[in-house]
Amino acid sequence: MTGSKRIVSVVTGTNSNLGLNIAYRFLESVPPDVRVTLIVTSRTLPRVNEVISKIKNYHDNHLKRAGTLDFDYLLVDFTNMVSVLTAIYELKRNYKEINYVFINAAQGVYAGIDWVGATFEVLRNPLKSVSNPTYKIQKVGVKSADGLGLVFQANVFGPYYFLKKIQDLLSAGKARIIWISSLLSNSNYLSLNDIQLLNSNVSYEGSKRLVDLLHLASYNDLNNANITQYLVHPGIFISLSFLKFLNVFSYYGMIALFYFGRLLGSPWHNIGGYKGANAPIFAATKADPKFDKQDVKYGSACTIKGSEFIKISPVDNSDAKQIYSYFKELELEWDEKLKDQIADTRKEYP
């Protein structure tokens, strides 16, 4: 961590359940006498104002800090490369260094739930049904307005491009980058013939596999630039993005199954976003690269009684170099497409 008396931290997806709790726990974990500038992100100004209000309320009513907390924001849509470029320009204009970036991108293109399949899966294997479900229906072939695979761009390429172009700020701040992956990021979710996930019916899981591979291929290069990068996942918790597909009965049924999964011995059913934020904050504020390896994934876990701990998982590095090469080539393509484009830095993205 930088020896500066000011800490600048960017949390993407701040208004999600996980993003909000990352912000809460980050403020709990940094030195209480240090000034903190928290840069929140959203596509719209009302959501920015809402999340800043929540974080400020938590800070003022639950924490005892002598240091100042101030806020900034980025109106950024990672499925819009002009918006990404604008966010990069905004940071470069206003900051000389950045100390932390949490890449908490978790967009999916869900179409609903296969309720018949869900019922059979719960009856056949209740633990699998709430740990590695196959009944969530995802749309196939969805592209962004930029012509890229939407989930690929939102969760991986957009954030990757963002980080690459602010690397000078990250180096100056001896920054920590925390990529939020997923428990569900197995190698079978990704094909090298479909890197943008346009033919995949598990594009969300495939995007998290890409996150894993990008991290494995890039963290050594970043170490040489005075940037420390870690890969984490939040375990299983209540995600607000999927609630629109649930009614009151299925919602509470899901929570009951989560607790049942924990009772059956699953270490991953954190249920709440606060426990889910444990691994991201550990990697950001406690992990020591001299002892805590960077070629693994740190997971938020808990005991049957809900006591939280960090559980480390190996990560298959197959195809990491090929994936990294693909992203570097795509980065050059977009450098050319975006040259001379600077947009309104406070524009909202619907």
Automatic annotation (TrEMBL):
Pathway: Steroid biosynthesis; zymosterol biosynthesis; zymosterol from lanosterol: step 5/6. GO terms for molecular function: 3-beta-hydroxysteroid 3-dehydrogenase (NADP+) activity. Belongs to the short-chain dehydrogenases/reductases (SDR) family. ERG27 subfamily. Its EC number is 1.1.1.270. It is an enzyme of class 1 (oxidoreductase). The lineage of its organism: Eukaryota, Fungi, Dikarya, Ascomycota, Saccharomycotina. GO terms for biological process: ergosterol biosynthetic process. This is 3beta-hydroxysteroid 3-dehydrogenase. GO terms for cellular component: endoplasmic reticulum membrane; lipid droplet; mitochondrial outer membrane. Gene3D superfamilies: NAD(P)-binding Rossmann-like Domain. It comes from the Eukaryota. InterPro entries: Ergosterol_Biosynth_ERG27, NAD(P)-bd_dom_sf. Keywords: Lipid biosynthesis, Lipid metabolism, NADP, Oxidoreductase, Steroid biosynthesis.
